[in-house]
Each structure stands twice: as C-alpha cells, then as structure tokens.
Amino acid sequence: MTKEISHINTRMLTRSPLKAKIVKVDSPTLFWAQLQNSHDDFQELIEDLTRRMTRLHRQLPLLPDHEIVAVKEGRRWQRGILTQIRKDGTAEVDLRDWGRTIDRPCYEIYILEDRFREIEWQAIPCALAYIKPDPAKTTWPRQARDLTKFLIERREGWISILGHVDELGALVKLELMNESGREIINIKDILVDSGYAQLTNCLASVTVHEMTAFRYLCCALNQREEESSVSAPAEDQWDAYRYLMKLRCVTTMEERVHQHTSTSSKICKDCYKALTDAEKYICTPVFAHMLILEDSVRNQTNCVICRKIIIRIQPAEECPSCIEAFVECNKSHLETGWGVPAVSTWI
C-alpha cells in the first residue's frame, strides 16, 4: 500500500506570528502560505527529488492506481496529486506544496516514491480574518483580487492564526514589510482603506464567499458519510471546493434557448424558429439553469445569429443551487462537457 502525504494541521500551530511566504493568491479570503520554519527541509526534499527523477524517472511510469505523483516544472521536479485525466491524454495535477494546478501529458507524469512523502504538503489555505466584501457585492470584485495578488503573492511576511477551517485552513492576520523594509503593513488595513473590503467584528464572517461554499461542501460531504459514522476527510473537502471553482453557473435569459450539438453555439428562440427542419434537427434545447465546466462554457453569452445576449454566466460558487447540484451530481457528466441541470431546492 502506498504512503499518503499528510497536511499541516493548523490546529497544532502556535498563535504567535509565523514567518511565511505567500505562494498563491485567489482573493483576500483564499490564498496559500508556506511556513518558513520548514523551508530548509522542503528545499532539500525538492533538490533530492530533482536529482533522483532526472536520473531515474523513466523507471517510474505512472500506474492507473497511483494518485500521488512527480512532475517536472521548469528545471525542478515537484510533488502533486493527480486530480483529472482527460480523454486527450493530458491530466491535471494539483501541486499541493504550492496551492496551484498544472496540466501535463500523462506520459510526463511519474510515480512519487515513498521516500519523498515524509514531509507534509507545504501550502496552507488561508483567509484574512475580520473583513468582508462590500455588502452590495456577492463576491470579491476583480480589483480586490488583483490588488491582493499584487500586494502579497510571492512576498514574505508573518501570519498570525486567529481561527481554523477544519484542520487544513486558517483564518489569519497577515503582515508584510513595506518596500523600504522599515515598516510593517497590515494587508487587511490596505484593503479597507482602498474601499475593497469592510471591517467586521465577526471572525467567521470572513467566509462570506469562498469559505461559505467550502463549509457547505463540508457539511454535505460529511452528511453522506453519516451512515458509516465516518466524516469525509478534510482534504477531500478542499479537493471538492477547488473543483467547484472551475465550474460555472449558466442561466438562460429567454424562455427557450437551443445550441448546436457539435459547436455548442447558442441560438435564441426567434432565430431557432427561422431555421430549416434540417438545421433544427442538429440543435438541442439548453436547460434554463446549468452547472458546467469553465472550459466547456467558452463565454458564449450571445445568440450566434442575431448576437442578442441570451445567456448569463457566473462562478458556480456564487449560486447556492449550483453548489447543491455539484454535491449530488455525477461528475462524469461535467467532464464530458454536457454539464448538469441545477434544480434548486432553495427559495
């Protein structure tokens, strides 16, 4: 049996400031940090892995039952988890030491030997505590995401853990040194002063967007396991949320919309009526509310004939009905590009 790689348990970490490097940023309430106190051990592991795989990678081909893998990125080899294999022979690998995913041909993915599985995954999912987006917004605006990315990505600073999301995630205070190196700045204060965030007295309200969807998935996944009295592993919950972030909520703005079966081009009801019987034969109705992979949506919001806007697209994590559909759906329907209908039980 292959050895699993554990995660850093944030409940076991000190509440004192921890030196860290921010390695990936999605928003003020979802970014990944590597702790400085394990930096040397991790770098030594990556150097050993690179030397080992440079010489012997062809002796370690990927096997169907192996999910923990080694892939080359630039001049170095990295650890990862295989999250998706596509029909075109490519695969998605989650680099959990870095909080991001990459795509590689399957023939460039190899087994990770047990000796490189001793150290925990290094990237800790974090959220800034005691802030929330503008109440008029359902999510962080693009400007807030971009500003956060500009301010903290690939920067070193100090995180103070104020709360937890299970054992994997942390609600934190983040401080960085300014460019002159003479002053410590609080990232939360910058976002508030810029008008992109609001202060709140409630620590948990930091989860208004990303963490709300994540917590819903936690509850839903754990509910499925109640009969066996075994909770869904926290890493599975994070995997589910990371997958949800790739999905889009698609709703039609007309009573009936059709699409071409081969090109997925959308056609409004008036233009559909004007088609010949042969043209109608190769079109299918579109569900009024769908959950679809981002790659399959292709930002097609207009009728391909008259260019009228007939489709609305938004991130799936903003839609409670889509989150509910995601928990219950057959994921293979998403992988094939067809999507699944989002039938709401929400009022």
UniProtKB/TrEMBL annotation:
GO cellular component, one term: cytoplasm
Domain Tudor, chain residue ranges per copy: 19-129
InterPro entries attached to this UniProt entry: SNase_OB-fold_sf (IPR035437), Tudor (IPR002999), Tudor_domain_containing (IPR050621)
Pfam families: TUDOR
PANTHER family: FI02030P-RELATED, TUDOR DOMAIN CONTAINING PROTEIN
Protein name: Tudor domain-containing protein 6
Gene source species: Cyphomyrmex costatus
Organism lineage string: Eukaryota, Metazoa, Ecdysozoa, Arthropoda, Hexapoda
